[in-house]
Amino acid sequence: MKGYNFGTIKPSFIIIGVQKAGTSSLHHYLTQHPKLIAPELKELHYFDTLKPTPPEGYLDFFPKEYFTRNLSFEATPRYLYFPGTAKKLYEFDPNLKLIVILRDPVKRAYSAWNMYRQMSMEPNQKELARQHEKRNPTEKAYTFLYSGKFPSFEEWIKTEMKICLASDFIEPSIIRRGYYKEQIENYLNYFSRDQMHFVDFQDLKGNIISVLNNIAKFLNISEFNNLDLNLNIQNERKYTKELDPDLYKTLLSHFQEKNNGLEELVNQNLKWMHV
């Protein structure tokens, strides 16, 4: 019975990035397709670690079904950024398909800062960050973000550009996560271009069904046109103030330089590359 699963449904594809670009919403939309299933937990964070990642531990997260051709997946947006994850995923399954959402990197960074700022107000967040840093010494989010007064967006940028870029620290990373081209090139050292599908964040916001149908084609499943879908946005956070326009221009210039050649790499016209 070729093509059928007989037990744990090994993931066929993974949404690997980027953070704060609608991965929660896309995950929510995809799980409504009758051919797609996913673990209850959206972000498994199994391969974004420097520790060994045996496949058995990963597969334990996935549902078990028998005599089905359903496809399973997960979404962990740190996978695109985290060093060594591309190799780990390739070793897990060289035939994996990968989905990446690309967002204006300045707006993505500002959204990430806003998320961490709100999280810093949660009573247990500092302790969770402290414990995580203790277990993962190269991740310094507690030291730089939570051990004192939470930094402004401008202060965070200066800290990351001055300290983190000249070190082996993996976190904090709101600036470095916007270096899409080098991260994608790293994945292309392991996976073919045909195994990667790229989505523009603006299209996901304005042309959802078109984006979903293109993904359906990529996955070789039926389109989303006739499905009764809940298209509500997931995990949307409010801002207390707008991003400074001059700072936006300065940062955008930096990201445009770092991502020179990205459009050709992903075969997409990205508006923020031409502002």
Describe, in plain words, how this protein is organized in 3D:
Helices cover 39% and strands 12% of the residues. It has 275 residues and is an alpha/beta fold. It has a domain at 5-104 and 178-219: 3-Layer(aba) Sandwich (Rossmann fold). The longest helix has 15 residues, at 105-119.
Q: Would you kindly provide a brief summary of this structure?
A:
This protein is of the alpha/beta class and 275 residues long. 39% of the residues lie in helices and 12% in strands. The protein has twelve helices and seven strands.
Total of helices: 12
Structural class: alpha/beta
Q: Average pLDDT value?
A: 94
CATH architecture descriptor text of the domain at 5-104 and 178-219? 3-Layer(aba) Sandwich
CATH topology of the domain at 5-104 and 178-219: Rossmann fold
Pfam family, one: Sulfotransfer_1
GO molecular function, one term: sulfotransferase activity
InterPro entries: NST/OST (IPR037359), P-loop_NTPase (IPR027417), Sulfotransferase_dom (IPR000863)
Domain Sulfotransferase: 11-238
Strand and helix layout:
Elements: E1 5-8, E2 11-17, H1 23-30, E3 36-37, H2 55-59, E4 64-68, E5 71-75, H3 85-92, E6 97-102, H4 105-119, H5 125-135, H6 141-146, H7 153-162, H8 180-187, E7 196-200, H9 201-206, H10 208-219, H11 245-258, H12 262-266
